[in-house]
UniProtKB/TrEMBL annotation:
Catalytic residue positions: S546 (phosphoserine intermediate)
EC class name: transferase
Subunit structure: Sulfate-activating enzymes, NodP and NodQ, may be physically associated. Heterodimer composed of CysD, the smaller subunit, and CysN.
Protein name, UniProt field: Multifunctional fusion protein
Record: residues binding ATP: G472, L473, S474, G475, S476, G477, K478, S479
Acyltransferase found in the keyword field: no
Gene this chain is encoded by: cysC
Amino acid sequence: MTMRHIMAKSLAPTDGVREYLAAQEKKSLLRFLTCGSVDDGKSTLIGRLLSDTKQIFEDQLAALERDSRKHGTTGDDIDFALLVDGLEAEREQGITIDVAYRFFATPKRKFIVADTPGHEQYTRNMATGASTADLAIVLIDARQGVLRQTRRHSIIASLLGIRHIVLAVNKIDLVGFDQAVFDRIVEDYRQFSRDLGFQTIVPIPMSARYGDNVTGRSDKTEWYSGPTLIEQLETVSVDEAVVELPFRFPVQYVNRPNLDFRGFAGTIASGSVAPGDEVVVAKSGKSSRVKRIVSYGGDLAQAAAGQAVTLVLDDEVEISRGNMLVSPAARPQVADQFAANIVWFDEHALLPGRSYILRTETDQTSATVTDLKYRINVNDFAHEAAKSLEMNEVGICNISTRTPIAFDPFAENRITGAFILIDRISNATVGAGMILHSLRRAENIHWQSLDVGKHVRADMKNQRPAVFWFTGLSGSGKSTIANLFEKKLFATGRHTYILDGDNVRHGLNRDLGFTDADRVENIRRVAEVARLMADAGLIVIVSFISPFSAERRMARELMADGEFIEVFVDTPFEECARRDPKGLYARALNGEIKNFTGVDSPYEAPENPEIHLKTLGKSAEEMVDALEHWLNERDIAEDQYDSGGGI
């Protein structure tokens, strides 16, 4: 026997190891998170669980003892929080900043626990941890009771589909293990959470620091007869029937390495599938059958939720990333308008009418909050009227997407019913959403096919449609230049129309003020009107301050390629204030007018406009000459119409 064979035999798993590994695979898995307010003891509790379930090696324990002397907050005792507060910044500040995930197991169950921050500014991190959890441990400092952040985290847990709560009344030792304190906190929490839809709420008095009622029963709480924390975690019945849900397969990409193979790759979100099963393309309704299930190790006889596979179909159906293969007997909803819960993360408020990027498991499209129905008060769950959502606030919204998406209500499927919102300028994730249901209006409204289109209308006018979008500060000269520009075009026989900011506010937008939310809606309406006018074959001249980059980009994306021409009328603030044609700057600087652009409301200058007019020291006529020169250089004034819709 060679040395290689001897070593291989010695390293091969024994029967006992095989049995142990097989037993571990058969154990159920519980995902849970700890949440609550600052300093309630979340990290300490997880560290205690890891220690008491023998998940810490001797060298780790020695390192923890050293770290406790250096960073700890528990005197001479071991600071178990340091096991999960891994970042140096966390240890220096004594708080949790990021989400820390840890795995541990007991003889009865396996666990993945997420330790989430308690500070309000890290609410987005808490929502991340809650998104995959089955149970939440809501910690409450027995000395403090139910706090605002306790309520906020409980509401977010409810919105994110968590139905099981352990109410951990921690630091019970610091109130003398007083049952009256415990009972009062439990009653306060039950009163607050009665409408949150939790299936179970199990209150436990505990001391994470000393281990009372964590893994072992405390002799200091003889008045308590309920389970210890670990007993509740081991026995709580959570819904693990995701495999029994209708089949959902979000397509991540089309795998076509050669002409002989075409498969659809992705991870099964729910349900199961086998060769021969009928499947339907969610958005088109086209049906086919599964021919093969291809995996890294070869073809499979069946695949279920959580498995990453490639499906090969019998037919050459059209399907791409963002679509779903689904069960024909239980199809998802496909709509471009729906209601949703929103948890807002960004320091810049959510503004109805502003365009964001909406991203689901695999799909992506432009989306707008068309109506903020109400904000949820985290103190009493009351529904409050609101025009925007500030950072860490929660609200119920109606959302409209540029193209339809396939989804299930979040309450039915947490994977296909969730989405995030992304800022179009910064690409930052600004909100998380949970779809409630499609709007009936979306089911009743369909695109009507028309025989006379933009091409025909433009040909009749012997021109190509365009939208010249003039932006700049009040007093920059936008309206004057736009007016002269239209006169020039009109004199050459062009069919034009000006949408001027002041004029539109006398009619279409007379109900809008000058808050950020109203400014966003102002531009959204004007952009839609400009699109309709361009569709009629007109050359549209829009003269609006339009201070926000996001709304100008939204307007651009409404138009066909090359049809939107941004004209930046660049006049310095000091010159605009000196001109002050309407006397508005003087009043704004004196505090008589609020939300005035350039004074106490920002103006986001274009970074790459098609036309940049620097007006200082030049007349309006010279600016129009510069416009004409730009047009002539690019043959924009030519009569021929590009059938692609561009200029």
